[in-house]
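Convert to structure. Protein one:
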Amino acid sequence: MIMKRWRVGSFSMGLILVASGILMLISLVVQVNVMNVLLTFWPVILISIGIEILLHLFVKKNEDGDGGKIRYDALSILFISFLLVISVGFYAVSYYAGLFETREDLYATLGIMNENVYLKNSETLNGTKELMVFNGFESITVLSAADKDLKVEYSISASTHDRSMAEGMLGDVIKLEPGERAYLRTETAMFRNNLKVGWPAIDCVIYLPKGTILDLSQYQGRLEYDNVIEEQIIRARDGS
């Protein structure tokens, strides 16, 4: 019976692929930072290939009568070396070069946003006769209000790798100035060139009471509205 010769590298590559697949599968079920795990446990690659070499030397030493001469799987070794270079490179840059204080700073430089943050809120305006809305919203939906007060509901979402920072920033996005003539604005300049929090998506629902004017002449995004209150809505001249 002819048996294939054991080539060092095949087992290690298989083990790494299986471990990576399991990790990515788990990340689909629970929140696991795959990049963080890979940067932390990259030395397992060295341990795996080292164990395989030792097993070859001590278990297969006299099997072929070649004194334990090691035969390598070139393709597997090339693949493992590629992973190793990337892992060591990240490790060296983030911890020894002094360019990044934390691993999160490295993620920011690489543009990695691995978590979505969502915020939803509503505000009621008493005695408002006109509301002017400015650009900055992805979409606005206008519905007829069930009572006499104007109500504004909004949701904001953004991708990030710094949840606490994102939540603080999202909480400051909507600016609502109450009064008989009220103003609804968005403050998104803080997200410009920000490496820790992505650009936010902002959607708004306005419940418009009878007799209240909604001025959307400064808004050019996606608009949906109840036909019952169409005459109460002032839109831009181009009809958008």
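Protein two, convert as well:
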Amino acid sequence: MTFTRRGRIFLFLFVGFSSLTGLASAQQATGGSASVPSIPANVSAAQPVPNATATAQDVASDPAKLDAANSDQATAARLGVGDLIEVNVYNVPELASKVRVGSSGDVYLPLVDYVHLEGLTQEEAQSLIEKRLADGGFVRNPHVTILVDEAASQGVTVIGEVTKPGIYPDGADHRLYEVISEAGGFSPAASRKIAILRRNRPDPIRVDLPRNLADDVSGNVEILPGDTITVPRAPIIYVVGDVGRPSGLLVDNGTLTVLQALALAGGTNRTAKLGGARIIRKGPSGMTEVKVEIKKMLEAKSPDVTLQADDILFIPLSGGRVVAGRTFEAAMSMATMVGIYSVHP
């Protein structure tokens, strides 16, 4: 394999320009002179080729290939944004490059300019670069090889309530429980309602897991490279004020009523002012306070009230004066200091 005359001219100008840029930078940084690296005698280059950006259609015009590109299995083996690759041209070391696929899906390579590689397999990308080198008259019968150093786009991303959120490589042949384990397991506040975002799928895959994963393996679904696993925080109901054990109660499944929440928080103290109990709730218009008749609930004269996620049930101290409009501040201050407990209604 040899350079064409045009290819030598192009590469000569490319390497020469890079060398002069490096020389200028070295002189500016040191205040002195720098030597220009020697250029091989058989290497040269010229002006960039106009309209140099290519797409996957250059190498994937076959309908069968396009169908395969849309499948999950094909997606698993394709280059994507963030991948770090090494591009080598056989017998032409001057064209070796180590580049990362940019956010646009392109990489910049000597002589051929920008090439769109996102969505291509390694073989398709190699063929595309070979075609660009040959069509541009730069290299006769080029043979290109691509090595993937970092397959960032093929990793599995785990975010939310896990011990070690992040990107985990080698997602092929993995299942949900295995990936969660790699991420250090669930945090104490984790919900078991998992969402999996998958490429080429508009809606997330939703999986409801048991508290003890060993109890049911039906949710141990297959995870594909490029998936994003989201572990949300479980809904919390806060019970604060003059109660036995001010708490944040994790309620991942089912619901809690006011009396149930009070019981889980150790009940009210003798000094509690039951008539001043409030539910602090966040709504579309902001925070609201709803009075609750706990004494009447205990006497079965008033229906028990179902609490919502992130509600704060505040029980003031008897004899204490609660200033109008300040209940919210007092309840929020107490809620930040409580312990979090998991409950199973």
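DSSP finds eight helices and 18 strands in the chain. The chain has three domains: 5-152, 155-231, 236-343.
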